Amino acid sequence: MSGALLASQAGVKLVPVAHNAGDFWPRRGLLKKPGLIRVRIGPPVEATGREPRELNAEVQRWIESAMEEIRSRPESVVS
How far apart are CA 62 and CA 67, in angstroms? Predict the structure, then answer.
C-alpha cells in the first residue's frame, strides 16, 4: 500500500522530503563517499478525499524540483 493511499484513507497530510544521500550512499553499495547531505522538507499536502495517483504525482513534482535545487548548489555552501 502506498503512502499516498494511506494518507488519503487516514485523512492526514503528506509531507514531502527530498535529499541527496543517494549520491553519496549508493543503494546496495558498501562504500560510502564523503559529501554534504542536503535535506528539503516540503509543505504539507492535503490528502483527504484525493486520489493516491494525483497525490503521488504532486509530491513527485515537488521532490524532483527540490532535487534540482539541491544538486545545483555548490557543495561548499551549507544551508
Answer: 9
H or E stretch at 52:
helix 52-72
* Cα 24 to Cα 56: distance, rounded to the nearest angstrom: 25
Q: What is the pLDDT of residue 64?
A: 97
Where are the extended beta strands (E) located within the chain?
A: 17-19, 39-41
Report yes or no on whether pTM surpasses 0.90: no
Question: What's the half-sphere exposure (Cβ side, CA atoms, 13 Å) at 46?
Answer: 3
Residue 66 burial by Cβ neighbours in a 10 Å radius (0-12, 13-18, 19+)? buried
